[in-house]
Amino acid sequence: MQEVLMTGQDLRQLLLNKWGVSYDIQLRRTRGKIFVQVMWKYLEQASFHLGEAEYLDHLNAIADYLTSLGGAEQVTNYILNTRDRPRLGKAVSIPIDLGGRASEWMV
């Protein structure tokens, strides 16, 4: 299977196309699984904790992880097809299926 390469700009554009704002994204590990969480805070908010350059650096790091994990295509498909949207206090959680790579990433 060919790896899908993703950049931070690709990820941001995906968020903008789906929801119209640049949401924060976090990686979480819970009970031996990895989730991408699309948080309810976004770059265009006055109270957002990062500037645009820092936000793009953060998204680049997330995109690098997703590419390395083999999860870029899973995240893209989930975002394109979900009816959920982040809202105050509730992130959109996207499970990443690591398949045979799970042992490489779980300690």
Structural features:
3 strands; three-stranded antiparallel beta sheet; 107 residues; HIT family, subunit A; 4 helices; alpha+beta
- Indicate the overall shape: globular
Q: Approximately what portion of the residues adopt beta-strand conformation?
A: 15-25%
Task: Supply the CATH architecture.
Answer: 2-Layer Sandwich
Q: What fold name stands as the CATH topology?
A: HIT family, subunit A
Strand order of the largest sheet: 1-2-3
Largest sheet: 3 strands, antiparallel
Tally of alpha and pi helices:
4
Q: Any low-confidence stretches, pLDDT <50, length ≥5? A: none
Based on helices, strands and strand pairing, what is the structural class?
alpha+beta
- How many domains comprise the coordinates? 1
What Rg do the Cα atoms give? 13 Å
CATH superfamily: Protein of unknown function DUF3067
Tell me the series of helices and strands, N- to C-terminal: HEEHHEH
Mean pLDDT reading? 90
> What is the CATH first-level class name?
Alpha Beta
DSSP, total strands = 3
Distance between the termini: 25 Å
Query: Percentage of helical residues?
Result: 40-55%
Q: Could you explain the architecture of this structure?
A:
With 107 residues, this protein is an alpha+beta fold. The protein has a single domain (8-105), classed as HIT family, subunit A. It is built from four helices and three strands; from the N terminus they run H-E-E-H-H-E-H. It has helices spanning 8-19, 52-69, 72-81, 102-105; strands spanning 23-30, 33-42, 92-96. It has a three-stranded antiparallel beta sheet with strand order 1-2-3. Strand 1 (23-30) and strand 2 form a beta hairpin. Helix 1 (8-19) packs across helix 2 (52-69). The chain is globular and about 40 Å long. It starts with 7 loop residues before the first helix and ends with a helix.
